[in-house]
Amino acid sequence: MSVFHVKHSSATTNGAPPSAPPPEGKGTPSRALTILRALRVSQWTKNALVALAALFSRQLIHPPTLLRVAVAFFAFSFAASAIYIFNDLRDRESDRLHPTKRRRPIAAGLLSERAAAILGALALAISLALTGLLASGALYPTAALLRDPFAAYGGAPFLFAASVAAYLALNVAYTLRLKRLVLWDIFAIALGFVLRALAGAFAAGVYISPWFYLTVIFLSLVLAIGKRRAELVRATAAASATSRQPDESGMRHALRDYTLPLLDQLMGVAVTGALITYSLYTFQADAAGGSLLMLTVPCVIFGVFRYLYLVYVRAQGEAPDRLLFTDPQILGAVLVCLLIITTALYGPALGSTLHLTRP
């Protein structure tokens, strides 16, 4: 019998409320789907950040670099899955009181605690194996190691391993304590994105402008603040609907110390910082084709404004990573940005290659 046993009962345990039933008209999810949901594979899109450093440094078309970036992507993806399972195991009781989190496999009783622990350990083992592969330097050509911009700090392979270790430690601290502390929670979320971006530079073995990292920091804060604001609006509305005090409505501890005016002011600061730092990053790109990156600034501004509209008018934002794929206008802005970036940075090189290969 497989250890990944999918439960079919929604009976209560130790007085806990019944697990959420499957959506009406649908049967119990398959074992494979339950495992994928527990790993939160749909949220692996966040780890695409590891490719940005290679993209902006014109290295993403080089097969050795692309391979290292791909390994880095899966190393962070499995690390994130291990953390998600750890978090879901720890918070399974409180998740059962949440309108959407109660449908997570562990909280809903679809995946046993033992199976979840084994699955989390496997995900962590895969992440550590991939991290060790990059840390060994085996995937870095000799030429790349000789011109390593991080040699003075221990080298790119070592720093990549350090970034994965820091990511794991940060998220364990977030699960155990930081997510309950006001301000610390949003900075922890932002730091997780920054570590991904840094790890991408270490995996690719390329230097990237400090303005790039500042842009990632501010944009990450925008997403984190928007997430907290949406959660606060929902929790406050739920408390009002049930005539409860916020402390009695299952609201997370950190949310009780936030107010909408405070989050709105923080959002203004973060948005301003993100737009200024990204603009400065594009303006200082003086290499061939780099100045054309300025054409992406209006797209970024539109994308941010559209996100603010969804947060403030549509009361969305609890799952900012989903908005990228569910909102056509944000997705369109991202695709236009990518088209401009690839044309500006890779167009001259591809043009030269085609010219050289022309008979």
Describe this structure in words.
The protein is mainly α and 359 residues long. It has 14 helices and no strands. It is globular and about 60 Å long.
Write a concise synopsis of the structure shown.
With 359 residues, the protein is mainly alpha-helical.
Helix-strand layout with pairing:
Blueprint: H1 31-39, H2 52-56, H3 63-90, H4 92-95, H5 113-135, H6 142-146, H7 156-176, H8 184-204, H9 210-241, H10 253-256, H11 260-283, H12 297-312, H13 320-326, H14 328-357
Helix pairs in contact: 3-5, 3-7, 3-8, 5-7, 7-8, 8-9, 9-11, 11-12, 12-14, 13-14
List keywords for this structure.
359 residues; mainly alpha; Tetracycline Repressor, domain 2; 2 domains; 14 helices; 64% helix; globular; disordered C terminus
N→C terminal distance:
62 Å
**CATH superfamily grouping of the largest domain:** UbiA prenyltransferase
Helical proportion?
55-70%
Just name the CATH architecture of the largest domain.
Orthogonal Bundle
Listing every helix as H and every strand as E from the N terminus to the C terminus, the arrangement reads: HHHHHHHHHHHHHH
Q: What is the oligomer described by this structure? A: single chain
Whole-number radius of gyration?
Answer: 22 Å
Please identify the top-level CATH class of the largest domain. Mainly Alpha
**How many distinct helices?**
14
Low-confidence stretches: 8-25, 354-359
Report the CATH topology name of the largest domain. Answer: Tetracycline Repressor, domain 2
Biggest β-sheet: count, sense, barrel?
none
Main structural class:
mainly alpha
- Using DSSP, what is the number of strands? 0
